[in-house]
Amino acid sequence: MRHESHSLTIGKLAKAANVHIETIRYYQRRGLLLEPQRPPGGIRRYGSSDIDRLTFVKTAQQLGFSLNEIGDLLRLDDGTHCREAGALAEQKLRDVREKLDRLEQIEKLLCELVTRCHAHQGNITCPLIASLHEGIKTESSR
After folding, report:
1. Range of 127's domain?
2. Per-residue pLDDT for 102 more than 50?
3. What is the DSSP string of 66-106?
4. 73 within a domain of the structure (yes/no)
5. Within a domain: residue 119?
6. What is the pLDDT of residues 43-101, one digit of tens each?
7. Which of 7, 21, 86, 98 sits at a 20 to 30 Å CA gap from 129?
8. Does any domain span residue 44?
9. Contact 93, 83 (CB under 8 A)
10. Residues 48 and 93 in one domain
């Protein structure tokens, strides 16, 4: 069993994990990070496992997991739930692929609108602004 020294104040924990103190407090309210007991007349102290936990949360966020999903992953963090964790990751991957598809559609529409703006001549309504008012009508939807 690893002995851990709990010597960090919340400010030092925040600095070590490269997060704000309010982020730590928020994660505690959400149940993603435990709040240590305050010793009588003292201040709460944190240790390296708290840094590890914050690193886990921040890394999962960078991969697109929501805080609710991260909570689910943390509940599976005992080494015996790889299949369940994998299923959550597969769902996240599907979500990311759907977002990429939507972004590609948006890119195509914006490219078309920018082209129409560049081709715009004279003192008439801007094609981009008009399209936003009318609902986007692209070459492919005409």
Report:
1. 78-136
2. yes
3. -HHHHHHHHHTTTTT-HHHHHHHHHHHHHHHHHHHHHHHHH
4. no
5. yes
6. 999 999 999 999 999 999 999 999 999 999 999 988 788 999 999 999 999 999 999 99
7. 98
8. yes
9. no
10. no
CA dist., res. 109 & res. 15, Å (int): 43
Residue 3 has a pLDDT of 44
- Angle, helix 10-17 to helix 21-30, in steps of 10 degrees: 100
Give the Cα separation of 17 and 27 in Å (integer): 13
Helices (H), the chain: 10-17, 21-30, 48-62, 67-75, 82-119, 127-134
Tell me the CATH number at 41. 1.10.1660.10
Please say whether the dihedral angle defined by the alpha carbons of residues 25, 54, 69 and 100, taken in this order, is positive or negative: positive
How many structural domains comprise the chain? 2
| Residue 128 pLDDT level (bands cut at 50, 70, 90) | confident
End residue of a domain, out of 35, 63, 91: 63
Instruction: Specify if 18 maps to a domain.
Output: yes
pTM of the model: 0.75
pLDDT in tens, 20-30: 999 999 999 99
Name the token pair of 83. Answer: 């299949």
